[in-house]
Amino acid sequence: PSGRYYLPRYEKVPFHNYNWDNLVFEENGFRTLYDEDGNRISKMGIDVSKYNKTIDWKRVKESGIEFAIVRVGFRGISEGTLEEDPYAKENILGATEAGLDVGVYFYTQAITEAEARAEAKFVIDHLKEYGAEINLPIIIDTELYESKKTARGNNLSRVQRTKNLVAFCKTVEEAGYQPMVYASTRWSILNYDRDALSEYP
Hints:
- There is one protein chain.
- By secondary structure, the chain is an alpha/beta fold.
- It contains five helices and eight strands; from the N terminus they run βββαββαβαβαβα.
- It has helices at 57-62, 88-97, 113-130, 158-174, 185-191, and strands spanning 23-25, 31-33, 45-48, 67-75, 82-84, 101-107, 138-141, 179-182.
- The strands form two sheets. Strands 3, 4, 5, 6, 7 and 8 form a six-stranded mixed β-sheet that branches.
- A hairpin with a 5-residue loop joins strand 1 (23-25) and strand 2.
- Helix 3 packs parallel to helix 4.
- The protein is globular.
- The two termini are 27 Å apart.
- The model has no long low-confidence stretch (mean pLDDT 94).
């Protein structure tokens, strides 16, 4: 529902210390953030999946992009099957070969901790299958599936969603990778306990 919400501040999640006066709109249309000494502290990256089709990674690198976050897969919104993104391997290996830093993500519709662990294992197994070495996190993407209100993950309780995210992150961590959670600010505040995930970016 819309409206204004008053919530207690998260104790373990600090405020950022960025000075938005140092956010510069560049001639290429991108924005760059600088620190107080004029050093660039932001990096430019892209999020890619099958919807981007075949990508010319050399051209991406030459355009100034420094990293790519590649979708490895997703869980079906109704039936709950685990699905590989058909461009995942091509994108991970192409971005790596072009010299970009690479991380990956999985779009979750898990409704139990066991399903969340299965999603993490799905990603880890596919990275091994690809022979891919990534140097950025394995990310779980949690969000409202707006075009289908009955999507299996939409109506999870805040408690269960938090447990699922923790289960995914711990499984990734135990496999030797850096876990991370992606969500919009509003979604994360209202739909899971950020304090319970504060050790993860």
